[in-house]
Amino acid sequence: MKCKINRNAAKVLQKMLDNEAKEGEMIRVYVTHQHGDHAHYDISLDTPTEHDEIVSTDKGIDVLLDKREEFLDGVWVQYFYVPREEFVITNPSKGSHTH
Questions:
Q1: What is the pLDDT along the chain (99 residues), one digit of tens a residue?
Q2: Could you tell me the CA-to-CA distances from 43 to 58, 64, 99 in Å, in that order?
Q3: How far apart are CA 80 and CA 69, in angstroms?
Q4: Residue 82: CB partners within 8 Å, gap ≥ 6?
Q5: What stretches of 1-99 adopt beta strand conformation (E)?
């Protein structure tokens, strides 16, 4: 499985790990809602399970992805400061859609 994160996301995720993570917790990207050719995503802190793959990113952050969820392979996590501070999580290989 593959996961990319931008530099801003790496900084925010590292801060989450440093300030909020309990022992053994990692960053998890997961699907909150799926319909048609796209899905909606979110991020949390979680511990690995038997269904997870730990994906190392080029920014030094390891991410948990559930191997059973096809919409997670190729996910791209970005963090933007403008127009408001927020994560934008997409999967370019699975189609894109904005609401």
A1: 999 999 999 999 999 999 999 999 999 999 999 888 889 999 999 999 999 999 999 999 999 999 999 999 999 999 999 999 999 999 988 865 554
A2: 18, 10, 19
A3: 26
A4: none
A5: 3-5, 26-35, 38-46, 52-56, 62-66, 75-80, 86-90
The pair of three-digit structure tokens given for residue 10, joined into one six-digit string: 């790496």
Instruction: Please name the residue that has the structure tokens 């990113």.
Output: 57
SS (H, E, C) 23-46: CCCEEEEEEEEEECCEEEEEEEEE
Distance CA 28, CA 95 (A): 21
Bridge partners, 63 (sequence order): 27, 55
Phi first, then psi, for residue 8 (nearest 5°) are -60, -45
Strands 52-56 and 62-66, by their bridges, are antiparallel
Q: What is the pTM of this model?
A: 0.91
